[in-house]
Structure formats: structure tokens, C-alpha cells
Design goal:
This protein has 130 residues and is of the alpha+beta class. It is 21% helix and 45% strand. Strands 1, 2, 3, 4, 5, 6 and 7 form a 7-stranded mixed β-sheet that branches.
């Protein structure tokens, strides 16, 4: 059985950080964006499209990067690092799941939370199978 895509993507990025292949200094989470720490990255499961023949699931993962209040550039930089390791990637084996293609659904959007902290967000389309 496949893991949730958001968990696999989080584990993939965390593995890159642990092996010094990705310069990410924020804490990384799957499934939700916690209230703390201020500086964090969250991968959240999203809706998708009907499967392709061959049981290729077509889902999405929302990527959220939150920074400290008043520090917008650093958070945007962390998002760019994450995207450089995910956008237009394919044929990745994460656990027992083959990720055929990963690509951005659109550009990065900016907002703030109720505490005034900057949040950068985008969505990643995910085609995968066991």
C-alpha cells in the first residue's frame, strides 16, 4: 500500500537535507502546518484527477513555507530550494512508490497568517503508482 504523497515528498526532501544536497534550514512537516515553529515547510495532501490506465494515481500536494514575521525573502528562498528539487522531476522511487512525474500547477502565491507571518504556497501535481 502506498503512503500519502505528502509524506513521501516530505521524506524525500528531508533525505536531501540530511545528505546536504538541499540547503533548507526550516523544519519540515507532512499533513499540516503547525502553529510553531515560525519557520517551517509543510507538505499537505490535496485532490487530484481520475487515475490513468495502469492505476497511475494523479494527485496533488500543497507546499506551504512560512517564515518569521517581517522576513519574506528568506521564506521565498526556502520555497525556491524546495521547488528546484521537485518541479519537473520524474521516475523517482520513494519507498515502494514510483513517482512518474512531479510538476507545478502554477506559480507561487503569497499570503500572511493571523499572526502576520508570511506564507508562500503552491501546488505540485503528482503522478504515481506502486
Amino acid at each position: 500500500m502506498m503512503n500519502a504523497a505528502c509524506r513521501d515528498i516530505k521524506d524525500y526532501i528531508k533525505g536531501l537535507v540530511d545528505s546536504s544536497e538541499a540547503d533548507i534550514s526550516y523544519e519540515i512537516f507532512a499533513f499540516y502546518l503547525p502553529d510553531s515553529p515560525d519557520q517551517c515547510i509543510a507538505f499537505i495532501e490535496g485532490p487530484g484527477m481520475p487515475p490513468f490506465p495502469g492505476n497511475i494515481r494523479r494527485g496533488s500536494v500543497q507546499i506551504l513555507v512560512r517564515g518569521k514575521k517581517g522576513e519574506m525573502e528568506e521564506g521565498y528562498g526556502q520555497m525556491e530550494v524546495v521547488l528546484s528539487h521537485l518541479h519537473e522531476k520524474g521516475n523517482l522511487l520513494i519507498g515502494s512508490t514510483n513517482y512518474h512525474t512531479l510538476w507545478l500547477q502554477g506559480d507561487v502565491m503569497f499570503t500572511r497568517d493571523e499572526k502576520g507571518r508570511p506564507i508562500w504556497s503552491t501546488n505540485l501535481s503528482v503522478d504515481r503508482s506502486e
